[in-house]
UniProtKB/TrEMBL annotation:
Protein source organism: Mycolicibacterium smegmatis (strain ATCC 700084 / mc(2)155) (Mycobacterium smegmatis)
PROSITE patterns, A to Z: HTH_LYSR
Identification of the protein by name: Probable hydrogen peroxide-inducible genes activator
InterPro entries, A to Z: LysR_HTH_N, LysR_subst-bd, WH-like_DNA-bd_sf, WH_DNA-bd_sf
CC annotations in GO: protein-DNA complex
Domain (HTH lysR-type) ranges: 1-58
GO-annotated molecular function: DNA binding; DNA-binding transcription factor activity
Free-text function comment from the UniProt entry: Required for the induction the katG gene for catalase. Involved in the response to hydrogen peroxide.
Keywords in alphabetical order: Activator, DNA-binding, Transcription, Transcription regulation
Amino acid sequence: MELRHLRYFLVVVEEGSLGRAAARLHVAQPSLGRQMTDLEHQLGQRLFERAARGMRMTPAARALVAHAREIIRLADASREVVASGVPRERVSLGVGPTVDADWLLAVVEAAKAQSPHLTLRIDEMLSGELVNGVASGELDVAVSSRRPGDQLQSVLLWTEPFGLAISPSGRLKGLDGVAHGDVDHARVLAFAREQTPPEHNEAIREIQTESPRVRWEFARFSTSAYANARAVDADAILCGEAAARRLPATWRWLPLGRLRTEMHAWLTWRPGSGDGVLQLVELIKGIAPPSGARLGSRAPMT
């Protein structure tokens, strides 16, 4: 079996017909048909059945698709490694569901430009899962709103204020500024406890002291914040500015004045990590914080 057979097989799968696949590959259709027949003989399984509108995969073909894609990916990666002369190192970065998209993209682009030998994998997890993921070795590096324990190394990347994303049709729509005493009787959507660090619950307690009749709605969400808010007719969403940027532009974000509690972003990694992980750590420390956030100390804490 040759890589060519698998590449041709995947194109036939994607196109759903020998004719369209042959045109895309710039080969004659009879020749492509023979290649597929050769592959079936080598595997001892029939891969396609003719259907009214092209080719239909058999169970054997469906089982082969993911395996073939992985083989092609590894073959292509091998060529890149040989061409560059530098072995690639895979590094996993964990982030929370509300991470600022522009900031994360800046990390990716900086890694490509400054450390091209690194292959970066990004995993999205809840705050508690991120720290546990680094401790267990599932993740190499994480950016989390929870400060890790002493067994891990960390730096404070930035702090940012809590605020409210104000519904354009809710009872708070006329406010130009908002303090935590202004939201009494308003319906406020907030992240569920398992998604958030202790600071989030402290902020809610602060708000409750001056606005004891807030009608809280708790839910697990990230990209579905707007749908959740619409579902419960929320007047506002308790969140940071980065999370608010995922909402329609008509939802104005206002920082909560006089609120002492702030959100934090901690960069975490294991002591004794390899060179690739440490390079990513230094690279992330050099990226400017998201809009509205204040730079942290970035001095290592152990």
